[in-house]
């Protein structure tokens, strides 16, 4: 292998390594942004996932509505529990309505009030020479 081929090969390897590192950093940042807080969660449903053929008591999704707005469907976890990202909810007091859904229809609504607020600023800020 002559020197020019070696340098070209080495340059390509360095560029590939830098591209890979950049991709890993971008993926890590994207994953951290994809999971906001807080999450609306529920306990698992007893007996889910079911191993009995024809047993359909486990929810397949949840119908969620914020302040009587549009209904959003959130898939149920395999244990029948709910895990829904509420990070984009606007500031203020809210009423959530949620229903469990399966192949037979949906449950009655469960209403869940909550409030999204930010902390107060620090009280009495000052400089201290100690």
| Number of individual domains | 2
Give the N-terminus to C-terminus distance in angstroms: 67 Å
CATH topology of the largest domain: Immunoglobulin-like
Radius of gyration: 25 Å
- Tally of helical runs: 1
Residue windows where pLDDT falls under 50 for at least 5 positions: none
Say how many strands there are.
7
Percent strand equals 25-35%
Globally, the shape reads: flat
CATH class of the largest domain: Mainly Beta
Characterize the largest beta sheet: strand count, sense, and whether it forms a barrel: 5 strands, antiparallel
Q: Round the mean pLDDT to the nearest integer and report it.
A: 83
Helix content: 10-25%
Can you walk me through this structure?
The structure is a single chain. With 130 residues, the protein is of the alpha+beta class. It has 2 domains: 1-34; 37-50 and 58-116, Immunoglobulin-like, CATH 2.60.40. Helix content is 25%, strand content 28%. It has 1 helix and 7 strands; from the N terminus they run αβββββββ. Strands 2, 3, 5, 6 and 7 form a 5-stranded antiparallel sheet that branches. The longest helix is centred in the N-terminal third of the chain and has 32 residues, at 3-34. The protein is flat and about 75 Å long. The chain starts with a helix and ends in a 14-residue tail after the last strand.
């Amino acid at each position: 292998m002559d020197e020019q081929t070696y340098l070209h090969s080495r340059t390509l390897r360095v560029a590939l390594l830098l591209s890979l590192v950049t991709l890993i950093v971008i993926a890590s940042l994207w994953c951290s942004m994809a999971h906001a807080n807080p999450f609306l969660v529920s306990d698992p449903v007893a007996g889910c996932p079911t191993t009995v053929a024809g047993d359909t008591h486990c929810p397949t999704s949840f119908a969620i509505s914020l302040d009587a707005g549009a209904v959003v469907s959130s898939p149920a976890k395999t244990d029948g529990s709910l895990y829904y990202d509420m990070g984009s909810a606007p500031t203020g007091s809210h009423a959530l309505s949620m229903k469990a859904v399966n192949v037979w229809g949906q449950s009655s609504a469960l209403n869940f009030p909550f409030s999204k607020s930010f902390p107060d600023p620090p009280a009495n800020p000052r400089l201290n020479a100690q």
